[in-house]
Request: fold
Amino acid sequence: MDRMLYVAMSGARQTMRAQAQVANNLANVHTTGFRADLSAMRALPVYGPGQPARAYAQAQGTGMNLNTGTLISTGRELDVAVAGRGYIAVQGPDGREAYTRAGNLQVSENGMLTTGSGWPVLGNGGPVAIPPSEQIEIGADGTVSILPVGQQASTLAVVDRIKLVDPPENLLAKNEHGLLRLSDDSDAVADAGVTLVSGELEGSNVNAVEQIVTMIDYARQFEMQIKMMDTARQNSEKSAELMRLG
Reply:
């Protein structure tokens, strides 16, 4: 009875964790450049004193869906989308380099070029700083040009170039902030083959219908596991009654 109860209990707990991951995917269905998280269930033996005679279920993250999201035309001069493979390098909350597909860029109050989430965009020598300007243009190669205040339209000045990278996808891992990093904690080298499309944004690659179906499936699995736990309880009670009769 205890084996049945243990398996059902661990399965219900891990199903709730997987359900939370699906809920997070659905919550980001409209988040620019979001990559859906993937997970799968697996059975693992319980190691300890004696033989591993028990098993438990575990919801294990299997990575991300790295398929490209739909491009949305905005016409905004600071909106950019990565064309095909590649990522925009940004500075994470700990000051280290990270990567994103979110190209909804903006200029902060301090004159720093940041993503919509506030992560500073990295250039050739660190975060990209934008001097006071009347116009900003971002080229296909990531070159950031400005029209200085009071200057003629023909006097565009290049201020920096956004660092664009294309690291091996099997080395990418997502952190708690939704940013990507290399699993070996190194920094990717700039790749001249990565290009940007100005005036467009890449939407989330979350398939809402698929995620809702998965959520329903997990809900049914959770209900089945709760029923198994109740069945184990009933079997235990019946066994106790038989022992008393004996």
Summary: Helices lie at 2-27, 208-245. The longest strand covers residues 55-64. The chain has a mean pLDDT of 87.
